[in-house]
Amino acid sequence: MLGSCRLKKPNTLRLALHAADKRMCEVIQENPQVLKKWVMGSKVERLQNLILKSRMLKTKFLLDLGIVDDSNEMGKALKVFRGSGAKIQERFDCIVEAGFSRKDVCEMIKASPQILNQTKDVLEKKIDFLVNNAGYPVSYLITFPSYLNYTTQRVELRLAMYNWLKDEGKSVPMLSLSSVISLSDKKFINDYVNSHPRGPQIWQNSSSIKSH
């Protein structure tokens, strides 16, 4: 994005925004799109105004969906959901378009709010992997929305190791996807990887391949 925008000089921005460098960095991290409003020739709004507008959009979004219906909860919710109101709406719509009702997605978000802190592209890739690689119906997310909080690499490694153990004839308990990927690394390695003499080597090889 920086390559496509010719930004105003830092000193000019500080004066126009009435903000210190640290606060400017925080706003950029939360909503990189704001850089487009700071290009040469554009009129720059005070940072406080931008923050208030973003907060209003988030508040409206949460109230409209009924995710938060108590003013005491709103402050906590606004801290949980990162990004602009428009971006949060885009992510919500992305999950709906995967095949869910708005009600279902609201329940998923209530159970695991952090899923809306990922970009639309990341959400799409994780849902695609769940359905087309792991072989689960998309409706599984209603039961286990936290799946979207885990990296695809983690899910792929855990499933590959678990399935390898079964193929090797190792007696392993029947586990749900949520159990396979939510175990801590230490417990998964102790309970499953180390349960087979060749397990550690297979795990190490798979980890090396997936990291490249």
Automatic annotation (TrEMBL):
Keywords: Transcription, Transcription regulation, Transcription termination, Transit peptide. GO terms for molecular function: nucleic acid binding. Gene3D superfamilies: Transcription termination factor 3, mitochondrial. It comes from the Eukaryota. The keyword Transcription applies. Pfam families: mTERF. InterPro entries: MTERF, MTERF_sf. GO terms for biological process: DNA-templated transcription termination. The keyword Disulfide bond does not apply. PANTHER family: CGI-12 PROTEIN-RELATED, TRANSCRIPTION TERMINATION FACTOR FAMILY PROTEIN. Belongs to the mTERF family. This is CGI-12 PROTEIN-RELATED. It comes from Salix purpurea (Purple osier willow). The lineage of its organism: Eukaryota, Viridiplantae, Streptophyta, Embryophyta, Tracheophyta.
